[in-house]
Amino acid sequence: MSRFFLLLWGLLLLPRQAHGANCYPLTSSFCHGLGYATTPHPTGAPGYSLQQAAQLVETACSPNVAALVCRVVVPECGSEESSQKKPCRALCQKVKADCESALEARRLSWPARLRCDALPESNCVQGPHTSGLHLPPASCQPITGPLCGDLSYTETVLPNLLGHTTQEEARAALQTFALVMQVGCSTQLMPFMCSVYIPKCVSGSPRPPCRTQCEQARSGCESLINRIGSAWPEVLRCETFTTESCEQVPAFDSTQTSACQRITVPLCRDLPYADTVLPNILGHETQDAAGLEVDQFQTLVKVECSPHLKPFLCSVYTPECVSGSPRPPCRTLCEHARSNCESLMNKFGFQWPDSLKCEAFSTESCEHYGVGRSGGVCEPITIPMCQGLAYNQTITPNLLGHTSQREAVMRMSFFNAMVQSMCSVDIRLFVCTVYAPRCSAGEVQRPCRSFCERAKRGCEGLMGSFGVSWPDELQCNSFPVDNCISEDKKPEMLYAEGILAKLIAGGYSVRGKTLSLKTARLLLTYMDADKTGYLDVVEVFKLEHYVAVVRREYVENYEKSNPPSIPLGQMKKALREFELDDETFTVLWNENRGEGGIDYDEFMAVLTKLHILRERFHANLLRLPCDCQVASFSFKQFMKSAII
Asked: b/e map of 247-276 (b: 16 or more CB within 10 Å)?
């Protein structure tokens, strides 16, 4: 009983708000060490991209490039009220001049919103440490004291994300959580809290906290904290962290295995997957029971308050069956659906169900649902003018800030009339890549500057004859010159080197291990249907789909083994469809295995090679002059001779 009262007292002391009402830890590692540790915009200020900011900082084109870019894109808390925390105009002009040639060489563009004349001339930040803390260069130091002393790492580095400059200061703040950690409400609470207050030192820099670990700690302990009238600290909001530093964090428990069954619930019949498995996470043991409950959302789905509501609901009530286990729902998908639909529900006296609280889900499976690292979610294109293009997924807000496709289609009605009547064929695809931009893995794909210029040339003259000028919001100099979409086919005609670069940029890696050039050449051979030696737009799309499927199979079934590789027995099972005899399989295994088995790159290479051989065998059958039965015996022999 005494421990319980101590717990209540400790919880009452939890920090409600460590850095103001709208301040969050600065989690962007490229902005650490600049003299501040909190920001109101941890994922980037409106109109700015963290990815573009990171690319600029990484060029190191100016000694002060990080100080300028970070203080604009992820500004210090209080900078909106105080010019002392904003970068100076002279600093901006100096960095811009320093970086001009470097950005041009790397085909990067200066952020259109970053205008030097909008910054203050005096009483402002002149460099990395002219405001806030004056910190010496960081170095690793041994962890001292009992709290966080028995972790898998032994060295830390300060200041931490919350601005504590000594271990004593950090430990004093962490002490308020000591009793909560002793209660054992979550095994992830202590490692998460230590990752924030006493972070692991990696090459002199603190490893960022893991969002998944935060979510699991919060899910296990928040109800206990709420029970005594306190709240999870706002400064530790899980949404402000990323999953990039997550290492072997236990995921949603989907270890149960059962028989997959065809989906019969009417709402969920037309999904990208056709099979489900029960019981679901709400305990429904039959589809009739699940369908009866999910049917209450039918009207909400029909009014299209969110394109993410239906896929989220179905992921809960009729989860996809993956090797006899349910695929966990995605927290980010839930948050998008709830933010768009909850106000409409409240208008009619309904509340978002407690059983669907987004905090109860993790982000582990979000990549499968088209969620990017920044939290963006792909959605099907519903704008009629933009349907039937080379892509069918978009993302909102779009490049002009329209928050829904419904708003975007109203704004582009003028272009719709022009497309039907007078402009070049370029204009349709260009306008769609702006108003309904292509979305891949939750990330927006921007149109190229050259594409904009070509579309403008084909349309501007005709627009002028009607007394209409090219819209200011579509000025071509605001679009990038590289890593973008062009209607021109040549940039999409990829050779092996280009394929590898595209797959690396697209995130088709496992634990930081990318595919090799050797494997890229095999992928080129497999996908090059017209035997031109390169891949066109359609072939690239098929390639990305194939690699994504193989990567998902590897991650879901083999990546968590130690070391992460496929052992002999499982590899033999994975290749069963190719009908290899024992001798052929043994040769293939010995040629490709590494320590512990077959790794991700070799798995992709082996599967692709076998697909190529099987296609060649069937192509030879089609060339036979008769309906020959003799060829049916030779598939195993063909594979054996090709491999051995």
From this structure: eebebbebeeeeebeebebebbeebebeeb
